[in-house]
Structures are given as C-alpha cells and as structure tokens.
Amino acid sequence: MIYVASDHGGLELKKELILFLQQNHSLIRDMGPTAFVKDDDYPDYVKPLCERVQQEPDSRGILICKNGVGVSVYANKFKGIRAALSWTPEHAKSARNDDDTNVLALPAEYVSRQVAFDIVKVWLTTPFSKEERFIRRLLKVEK
C-alpha cells in the first residue's frame, strides 16, 4: 500500500501524483486533505499516514507540503519511520538504497510536477541495498 497525504501547500501536487500512481500501482490511499483549507496543519495529515506505515511494514508513505521540511521533521518522530526529503531522483535513489526510507517528503514549491513523478518512480522502484554498513547505521539509529 502507498499512502499519500499533504497539507494545503501540497494539495494540487498530491492530486496529480495520485493520478500518476494509480496508472502503475493499484493500492493507493489518499490520507487527505480532500479540499483546500488555507489554515490546515500538516501534523494532522502526517500522523495518520505514519501510523499506517508503522502498522504495515511493507507499505510506503508520501508526504507533500510547500517545502517538505515540516512533514519530514514530524514524520521522523515516529518510531520506525525513516523519512527523506528528496528534490531529485538521484537523491531519492540514495535515500532508498542507503537508508531504507519508508516515507518520502516532497517540496511542492521546489519541484515541477514531472520531477516529482520521476522522484516517486525512482523511490518506489529502488530497493534497500542491505549492505552491512547501512544496516549497522540503521540499527544504531533505531536504538
């Protein structure tokens, strides 16, 4: 399952991204918002998404806000969540390969629609390398 959420700043990109994902993945869940609310707060959408990813270890989450920082900072407060704020496909590949990220944060104001699609495609298709050094580091972080 791929869970996708945003705040008002990422709503339009989220809508487009869900349509893109539905072409290639059958299990997509929109975690909100469903309408533009200028004063909404990203923590209200990050929390339910991260709880789902915690409950379903094989799932992934994608969070979107204007700069991607707030959603990634809050997501990383949840045990077992490894969120990466990525702005290029190369960075997203490294985040999966080296750090086994399970949540991707996107900065809606700093990436084009097509770049966001490319980032997500690479992030979803890149496996964790399972190199000993990366596993060792993740175990230290988990403690």
Characterize the structure shown.
By secondary structure, the protein is an alpha/beta fold. It has a single domain (2-142), classed as 3-Layer(aba) Sandwich (Ribose 5-phosphate Isomerase B, Chain: A), CATH 3.40.1400. 48% of the residues lie in helices and 15% in strands. It has helices spanning 11-24, 43-55, 69-75, 89-99, 113-125, 132-142, and strands spanning 2-6, 28-30, 60-65, 83-85, 103-107. Strands 2-1-3-5-4 form a five-stranded parallel β-sheet, with helices on both faces. Helix 1 links the parallel strand 1 (2-6) and strand 2 (28-30). The longest helix is centred in the first third of the chain and has 14 residues, at 11-24. The chain is globular and about 45 Å long. The two termini are 27 Å apart.
Task: Provide a brief overview of the structure.
The chain has helices at residues 11-24, 43-55, 69-75, 89-99, 113-125, 132-142; strands at residues 2-6, 28-30, 60-65, 83-85, 103-107.
Topology:
Layout: E1 2-6, H1 11-24, E2 28-30, H2 43-55, E3 60-65, H3 69-75, E4 83-85, H4 89-99, E5 103-107, H5 113-125, H6 132-142
Parallel strand pairs: 1-2, 1-3, 3-5, 4-5
Summary tags:
143 residues; five-stranded parallel β-sheet; Ribose 5-phosphate Isomerase B, Chain: A; alpha/beta; globular; 5 strands
Structural class: alpha/beta
Sequence of strands across the biggest β-sheet: 2-1-3-5-4
> How far from one another are the termini?
27 Å
What percentage of the residues does DSSP assign to strands (E)?
Answer: 15-25%
- Overall shape: it is globular
CATH architecture classification name: 3-Layer(aba) Sandwich
* Poorly predicted ranges: none
Determine and state the CATH class: Alpha Beta
Task: Give the SSE order as H and E letters.
Answer: EHEHEHEHEHH
Here the CATH topology equals Ribose 5-phosphate Isomerase B, Chain: A
CATH superfamily: Sugar-phosphate isomerase, RpiB/LacA/LacB
Radius of gyration in whole Å, from Cα? 14 Å
